[in-house]
Each structure stands twice: as structure tokens, then as C-alpha cells.
Amino acid sequence: MPRADDVEDQTRKARKHLATNLIVMRREKGWSQEDLALEAGLHRTFVAHVERGARNISLDNIERLAGVLGVETYELLVPFSGEK
Amino acid sequence: MPRADDVEDQTRKARKHLATNLIVMRREKGWSQEDLALEAGLHRTFVAHVERGARNISLDNIERLAGVLGVETYELLVPFSGEK
Fold first, then answer.
1. Structural domain boundaries in chain A
2. Is residue B42 less than 8 Å (CB to CB) from chain A?
3. Residue A28, exposed/middle/buried by CB under 10 A (0-12, 13-18, 19+)?
């Protein structure tokens, strides 16, 4: 029986959705990772890790990224449809 | 000029949306905070704090809560419409 602690090792779909949306939306603005990091007041390395799904980002920081990208926080977590 | 560090003190809309959705969805299941915490493998106090918007929860834990509530992670952050 899987324990709740294993959940994050099983899927982490949310991290992947966030990573894809971040990359797509950042590029639409013509921003580098460093540009996005500067705008959001975060470290470039942190942003790079989030874009690889390697970091368990907090809600406040997701909201901060959404704010500078001009979208609602939940939009960063919607599965990427590929259309736009 | 507001600094990025101030953003979390200004609005924290995302925390409020999450809190409202958690409470509504939990009650729809007839669960107490303790029930939800047990299902998600989290501490009851932690869930209580998140439902008050007093806690900066991580994405992995939001995903965990969404999983036991049977919704997609982003659905916990969509502004609550009041309809259902």
C-alpha cells in the first residue's frame, strides 16, 4: 500500500505542469530565466530548478511568478494544452 | 516602488483561494480537518493553518491534498465561484 509520503516520488505532475507553463509563458515575453528571476525577486538558479521540476516551490513564490507573468496563479498549474 | 519581497504581504490571494476551496471541497466529502490531514498524510495543525491562509504550503503538498480530494492541483487555486 503506497504511503502518502511516497506520493511526491510517484508523479509530481504539478511540478511538470508548472515547469512547462513557466517556460512557455516566459518565452512568450522574450525573457531569459534571469529576466524572470529578476522580475520576481527570485534567484536565477531557483527559477532554473523550478523549470526542471527539481524544486518544491511554495505557493507564495508561484503567486509571485504568476504576478510578473501577468496571469492568475492557478493558470501556471493548468496542464499545458499546446494551443495559444 | 514595491519590492518583490513585499508581494506576499500585499495580497496573498492564492492562499485565500486555496483556503476557500479546501474548506468547501473537504466539507462536500463530509470530512473534518483531521480526516483530510490523515488522508493526505499531513498534520492536522498544518491543514488548519492552510485553511486559515496562515501557511505558505509547498506545491507538492497542494498536489497531495488535491489527490485525496479527487481534483486536479490547479482546481484548488481557482477563485471560488460559489456555485456547485
1. 12-73
2. yes
3. exposed
